[in-house]
């Protein structure tokens, strides 16, 4: 009789231990998933800020662009400062987007929305897609893709026509 009682108690204790282990595994999994979700949102949000654009042809800093998140969840960027190329006077900096077309024609360069409608890529949290890029010197408008570096201090902006193979990239550096 004592042996039957002992077996029943031990089965009950073992069931509780097993249930506790299963419960703890599920809690740990939920905590891990929650942490990963929040870390991806943090990573994505770090594109917001001020960036120094580096001309891919000359290698010189050309402007500062402030990227912000719009109310519809897309990202856009406006020029807030323009730099002259070394050995050129400030007179060579255009004040208006003379070669732009449509609503951007003759708009001031300072305040010009040069990137717009970028959305976070649901497959890659460090990439933004579906937006457009304006080159204020040529007036051309390109499709674009933005990639945030692992250290979150650089972005690579790729402007292209048709497919991203037919385009060029610029690296922008985070500016304080």
TrEMBL record:
The keyword Phosphoprotein does not apply. InterPro entries: DUF2147 (IPR019223). Keywords: Signal. It comes from the Bacteria. Residues 1-44 form the signal peptide. Residues 49-174 form the DUF2147 domain. PANTHER family: BLL5882 PROTEIN (PTHR36919:SF3), BLR1215 PROTEIN (PTHR36919). This is DUF2147 domain-containing protein.
């Amino acid at each position: 009789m004592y042996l039957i009682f002992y077996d029943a108690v031990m089965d009950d204790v073992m069931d509780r231990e097993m249930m506790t282990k299963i419960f703890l595994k599920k809690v740990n999994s939920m905590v891990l998933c929650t942490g990963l979700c929040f870390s991806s949102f943090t990573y994505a949000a770090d594109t917001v800020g001020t960036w120094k654009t580096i001309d891919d042809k000359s290698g010189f800093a050309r402007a500062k662009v402030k990227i912000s998140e719009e109310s519809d969840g897309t990202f856009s960027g406006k020029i807030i400062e323009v730099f002259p190329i070394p050995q050129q006077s400030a007179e060579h900096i255009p004040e208006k987007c003379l070669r732009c077309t449509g609503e951007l024609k003759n708009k001031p360069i300072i305040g010009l929305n040069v990137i717009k409608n970028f959305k976070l890529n649901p497959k890659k949290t460090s990439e933004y897609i579906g937006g457009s890029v304006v080159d204020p010197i040529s007036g051309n408008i390109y499709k674009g893709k933005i990639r945030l570096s692992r250290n979150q201090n650089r972005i690579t902006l790729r402007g292209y026509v048709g497919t991203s193979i037919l385009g060029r990239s610029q690296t922008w550096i985070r500016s304080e």
